[in-house]
Specification:
Elements lengths: L1 H36 L1 E2 L7 E2 L3 H7 L2 H34 L5 H7 L7 H11 L6 H8 L14 H26 L3 H9 L4 H29 L3 H6 L11 H10 L4 H29 L2
Helix pairs in contact: 1-12, 2-12, 3-7, 3-9, 3-11, 7-9, 9-12, 11-12
């Protein structure tokens, strides 16, 4: 027993530098951002303490509320699409023995592509003049679309791009959950004559809920702070139609140099992400089996 305690103490001591470094890398930037958010500060000027006036200004800022709405709409739309399609792809991969390893690799490869590559690729595909997307629409008799240049369709289009990239990631997580389900439950359902739909709805889906909530937690962190694909494809446009909180904070901080206000926006966004993760974590505890 004493030897085991001594070994644990040595491991804790050896891991202390890594823990301290990681904590410093997270805690210091966060604390510094909080400090900035409590000051009126622009590049070239001395910080002036304003005791939360940035947050009061933010609550009175119509662009903040517009960015919050766009962030939440994009989050919900993308998350639902990725969970539904990811589950469907996982079921196909799990149930099909004919798909070769190469096919499976190709199906899950989009999420390993850099965001810059994905954004530039879809800019070409969705180009209103020469893009393949409008060519396909016209070939089946449908009208052309402006896609990313349309205030009406830009959010749905960005959600589609992100879904194309990250559905395979969700499918990979769900596939792992499917492979861990107890086979005896399915054997009993087959003996009872349950159809595929009833088996999925009453057995597979309830047993997969912890896995699906885990996938939702992982994707929520990225979706609520959506930045890269939007910045590459629309930069918040057309107008402010895709101006999420992250894009708005970037504009305030690095284009208008309002560092204090931008910091307040980022702290608020961090609180939203943390809140969503906490809610989903509690949900996962409730559906655990």
């Amino acid at each position: 027993m004493s030897q085991s305690i001594g070994t644990r103490g040595q491991l804790a001591f050896l891991s202390l530098p890594a823990v301290a470094f990681t904590t410093a890398m997270i805690a210091f930037p966060f604390a510094y951002t909080v400090w900035f958010s409590l000051h009126e500060f622009s590049f070239g000027a001395k910080p002036k303490l304003n005791l939360g006036m940035n947050y009061i200004e933010m609550l009175q800022d119509g662009e903040f509320w517009n960015g919050l709405k766009i962030t939440l709409v994009l989050y919900v739309l993308s998350l639902v699409l990725q969970l539904v399609l990811g589950t469907y792809v996982a079921l196909l991969l799990h149930g099909s023995k004919k798909l070769s390893g190469i096919v499976r690799t190709l199906m899950i490869s989009p999420f390993v592509l850099p965001p810059v590559v994905v954004g530039m690729m879809w800019l070409v595909v969705l180009d209103p003049s020469i893009g393949a997307a409008n060519y396909l629409l016209q070939s089946v008799g449908l009208p052309r679309s402006d896609w990313l240049a349309s205030p009406t369709w830009v959010i749905a289009t960005v959600a589609m791009i992100d879904t194309w990239q990250w559905t395979p990631y969700v499918a990979l997580i769900v596939l792992g959950g499917l492979q861990s389900l107890p086979p005896n439950v399915y054997e009993a359902a087959q003996i009872d004559g349950a159809t595929r739909w009833k088996t999925f709805w009453r057995i597979t889906l309830p047993l997969l809920m912890p896995t699906l909530v885990t996938a939702a937690i992982l994707r929520s962190v990225d979706l609520l702070r959506f930045f890269d694909i939007i910045y590459i494809t629309t930069q918040g446009g057309p107008g402010n139609a895709s101006n999420t909180l992250n894009i708005y904070g970037f504009r305030k901080g690095f284009e208008l140099f309002e560092i204090g206000y931008a910091s307040a926006l980022m702290i608020t966004l961090s609180a939203i992400v943390l809140g969503a993760v906490m809610v989903l974590t509690q949900a996962r505890k409730r559906v655990a089996w």
